[in-house]
Amino acid sequence: MYWSNYHSHCIFCDGRSSMEDFVKFAIAKNVRKYGFSSHAPLPFLTKWTMLEDDFADYQTEFFRLKRKYENVIELYFGLEVDYIDNCSNVHNTFFEDKIFDYLIGSIHYLDKLSENNYWTIDGDFKEFDKGLNILYGGDIRLAVNRFYEISSLMIQNGGFDIVGHFDKISLHISHYKNFNPNDKWYENLVGEVLQLIKEKGMILEINTKSMTEKGITYPHRQFYSLIKQLDIPIMVNSDCHYPTNVIDGFEATYKDLKATGFKTLQQIVKGKWQGVEFNEKGLFEQ
Questions:
Q1: What pLDDT digit, counting tens, does each position of 138-187 carry?
Q2: How confident is the model at residue 251 (pLDDT cuts 50, 70, 90)?
Q3: What pLDDT is stored for residue 197 in this prediction?
Q4: Cis before residue 41, ω within 30 degrees of 0?
Q5: Which parts of 158-250 are beta strand (E)?
Q6: In CATH, which of 3.20.20.140, 3.40.50.300, 3.30.530.20, 1.20.1560.10 is domain 3-107+137-283?
Q7: Which residues on adjacent β-strands are paired with residue 2?
């Protein structure tokens, strides 16, 4: 039995330690397949995305570690790429001459607040609330509809392998009394985008970053049955920013997924994605 994690960050973006520290912790935690997915550069500066000038060093360090640990762990080279409407996607010129093992498509920003200043749905709650009022007049439903509209555009635009933290906007909207994740309009909205993921043949990430602290995954457990019904291929990632978190929430999440009826998780095997059987203790040897 072993674990895998394809969504991780290091000091080349907003991770809190070196690439090698993460590899060492992954090995110690019986992770056999580990992918680096630093936040890709954006057309504007942020505090948490990779600088374009640092990409060559990121690539060099990755391949150094891949050679050094090749007999101990499988390492994979990726990026987490933001989709921002009319601004950023995997078809930007930055990606044209680069080769990756995989790319994760995610949404952290929605619409512009001002020039090169976009509203983030994955930061400080006060900033989230401020942007919600400026852009959408405090209307949660309007903002949620916009989030899933942008999600659909990202999926239709394609060019990546994995849909990252699918319903991450729920991190903050759950704090508003007039929002209920069990409302039919919300479930229908999520269902429509899940159907699109299925149609495009993408892998859906079950993200455990908030599992230990908040007891939730992205997407939330309430959608596991629908994901299973749609037969969408899934994987489990911890989205770790600290080496100690490389398998956070895995055992409980694997158990929940198994109880829902999932039989396999997507893994890179001999250079291709394929389903590998699992239970609450990890993935079975191929």
A1: 999 999 999 999 999 999 999 999 999 999 999 999 899 989 999 999 99
A2: very high
A3: 98
A4: no
A5: 162-163, 203-207, 234-237
A6: 3.20.20.140
A7: 283
205 near 234, Cβ under 8 Å? yes
Mean pLDDT of 190-199: 98
Q: What is the mean predicted confidence (pLDDT) over 60-70? A: 98
Strand partners, 273: 268
Per DSSP, 193 falls in state H
Strands of the chain (E only): list them.
3-5, 31-39, 74-82, 102-106, 109-114, 117-120, 162-163, 203-207, 234-237, 264-269, 272-279, 282-283
Cα 51-218-192 angle, rounded to 5 deg: 105
Q: In terms of pTM, does the model score above 0.90?
A: yes
Residue type, 125: F
Which tokens is 54 given? 């640092």
Average pLDDT along the chain: 96
Q: 248 — phi, psi (to 5°)? A: -55, 130
Question: Taking the mean position of all CA atoms in its chain, how far away is CA 110?
Answer: 16
Longest CA span, the chain: 55
User: What SS3 state is found at 208?
Assistant: coil
